[in-house]
Amino acid sequence: METGSVRTSTGGRLLDAAAKLFWNKGYASTTTREIAEILGVRKASLYHHIASKEDLLFEISVSSLERIIGETQAAIAGVDDPLERVRMLVHAHVASMIADQNKHSVMLTELRALSPARRTQIVTLRDEYEQLVASVLDGARKAGALRADIPVKYLSLSLLNLLNWSIFWFQLDGELSPDRWADYLTSLYLGGAQKSAEGAVLR
Amino acid sequence: METGSVRTSTGGRLLDAAAKLFWNKGYASTTTREIAEILGVRKASLYHHIASKEDLLFEISVSSLERIIGETQAAIAGVDDPLERVRMLVHAHVASMIADQNKHSVMLTELRALSPARRTQIVTLRDEYEQLVASVLDGARKAGALRADIPVKYLSLSLLNLLNWSIFWFQLDGELSPDRWADYLTSLYLGGAQKSAEGAVLR
DNA sequence: GTCTATAGTGGGATAGAC
DNA sequence: GTCTATCCCACTATAGAC
Q1: A41 CB below 7 A from strand C atoms
Q2: What's the CA gap between A77 and A128, in Å, rounded?
Q3: How far apart are the CA of A169 and the nearest CA of chain B, in angstroms?
Q4: Interchain CB distance below 8 Å, B29 and A28
């Protein structure tokens, strides 16, 4: 986790502070002064830890994606039942996303602000994750557990829409726990919203 | 449509040009000079048509929401069957969204950049639309067509996630037509991804 | 590792001629 | 309705002391 860069106290808090501001105000509208204020230092001091503001956005994006990829892979490792793999994936995605809500939101919405070279790196990581999701679904489809009349590509994009964009309204302090939301999502995604699906795959 | 403000040639193209740039680069990173360049004028000339850059973002958001509200209401008016109303809503939403892709994307992602007073106005319009969706779903649920084991609030948020965030990867020139995507979405949302749903509500 | 001070740039918006 | 010229401001990043 900490390999490759020194993480002092200020350095460690830097990413979280930046993610919070980038998410609340947007990357371009957040000033280095505001980030420094949260950390209790002057803005010039930031440049001892980073080379540029864009570094922060890049590291936030990488960190968010590596976490979600790692935790999702871990959750489905060793699980054989095709539909159970889907359930595990949904739960891991929701949990990881909510544990890292600011970073994840920023990664999803601020890709445009990165330089082309770094944007490519993030897109590659995203593709890697989308491939993981698609392969879980494709496995379930090949096992006869998922419908075959809609291309896996769109089954996959739909699940990602449901998963990713929950983050914009999900409130940790609300009445809904991450696990319960993951249950709703799984049941709805697999069983549908129709009456006949009532109780489907809800545990 | 044109009531309340004069829409000269430059004025009319202004919103579209701004929406395109705001979507490609983000609101904060788009300069008035770039907008002017597209229109073939100097940036000072923009201020004959608008009072501020923020005006553009506000008008884009209002225009996008009024369109989607209007077209969705029109699509379900006079339709009685509860599930058919859901289908109509999905088709109208997808069509309207894609016809106005830049504006709609900007409305969804740049809310933060508006001043509090104007943000409130946009949030009110969004709430109005979400109420419309929730009421269609609630009608179907009360008619016994939708499951009752998941609160309508979450049935509604899930459908909005599926609908709204398609816009970020949907390509009009791709192999998928808006109507076909709406069919997939309807079938998936109502019937689910499981094998047993195969062919569900697909026309 | 943090500070003060400032360089250097580019932004939104305005003045006033045409 | 568009232009040139410019104001004023805030930003990122750097220099160099401590």
Answers
A1: yes
A2: 16
A3: 9
A4: yes
Tens digits of residue pLDDT in A131-165: 999 999 999 999 999 999 999 999 999 999 999 99
Residue type, A87: R
The H or E element that residue B157 is part of is helix B152-165
Chain B residues close to A89, C-beta within 8 Å: none
- Complete domains list, chain A, with CATH: 53-197 (1.10.357.10)
Measured distance CA(B176)–CA(B182) in Å, rounded:
10
- Can you tell me the distance from the alpha carbon of A2 to that of A15, in angstroms, rounded to the nearest whole number? 13
| Beta-carbon contacts of residue A104 (< 8 Å; ≥ 6 apart) | A64, A68, A96, A97, A167
pLDDT tens digits along A93-140 = 999 999 999 999 999 999 999 999 999 999 999 999 999 999 999 999
Q: Using alpha carbons, list the distances in angstroms from residue A98 to A169, A179, A185, B16, B33.
A: 11, 10, 14, 35, 39
